[in-house]
UniProtKB/TrEMBL annotation:
Keyword terms: DNA-binding, Transcription, Transcription regulation
Pfam family, one: HTH_20
Highest taxon of the lineage: Bacteria
Name this polypeptide is given: ArsR/SmtB family transcription factor
Annotated PANTHER family: TRANSCRIPTIONAL REGULATOR, ARSR FAMILY (PTHR33154), TRANSCRIPTIONAL REPRESSOR SDPR (PTHR33154:SF33)
SMART domains recorded: HTH_ARSR
Source organism: Micromonospora rubida
Domain HTH arsR-type: 13-108
The keyword DNA-binding is annotated on this UniProt entry: yes
Transmembrane annotation, as ranges: none
Family matches, as InterPro entries: ArsR-like_HTH, HTH_ArsR_DNA-bd_dom, HTH_MetalResp_TranReg, WH-like_DNA-bd_sf, WH_DNA-bd_sf
Length: 191
């Protein structure tokens, strides 16, 4: 394991809760912006506060977020934070339960849809709207010949690189850093 803060998901109910497209976006908001109020997350995801509150309760029951009452300025404010820095799951963990296997299959598809949506949103803008970031964004792929063990090793190495970059100190006020989405997939395939 390359990051002790990553939670291994083996409960199909938790996997279903985190795979819902809106809840996934809410988890991303907390990952990018840190602990937040229901109303702030609702605004960032274009949802009503009532809807966001409902989905936070689902995430809380699933052990994915926890209340952060110490951040509230008054009794009406409801703050939430992530319980883990991230999550991983393996379809293999759900293979013996047909319902769990169906959830894992759907979660994989929804996860890919989520990743592609983020990239497509970026690509839908004009080169001018991307500013200085247009020359920095990247896409890369390669065909490798690997064993299952080597693919697992590659996953660990890539994960360690991403963890190292995500654990860097927070930027200063003059820093031009902004959230950058990076993802990689590695699975057997044919051209």
């Amino acid at each position: 394991m390359y990051d002790a803060g990553i939670q291994q998901v083996t409960d199909s109910r938790v996997l279903a809760a985190m795979s819902h497209p809106l809840r996934r976006r809410m988890l991303d908001v907390l990952k990018v912006h840190g602990p937040s109020t229901v109303s702030a997350v609702a605004g960032l995801t274009a949802q009503s506060v009532a809807n966001a509150s409902h989905h936070f309760r689902v995430l809380h029951r699933s052990g994915l977020v926890e209340a952060a009452p110490e951040l509230a300025r008054d009794g009406r404010e409801r703050w939430w934070r992530l319980v883990s820095t991230g999550w991983r799951w393996s379809s293999r963990d759900f293979a013996t339960d047909p319902a769990g296997a169906a959830v894992a299959e759907a979660a994989e598809s929804l996860n890919l849809d989520h990743h592609v949506r983020i990239v497509r949103t970026w690509l839908s803008g004009s080169v001018e709207s991307r500013g200085d970031w247009a020359g920095s964004a990247f896409s890369m792929s390669n065909w490798l010949h690997l064993t299952p063990e080597e693919l697992a090793q590659l996953s660990g190495e890539l994960g360690a690189v991403l963890t190292r970059w995500s654990n860097r100190p927070s930027p200063g006020e003059d820093d031009e850093r902004k959230p950058v989405f990076v993802f990689a997939y590695g699975q057997p395939g044919e051209p």
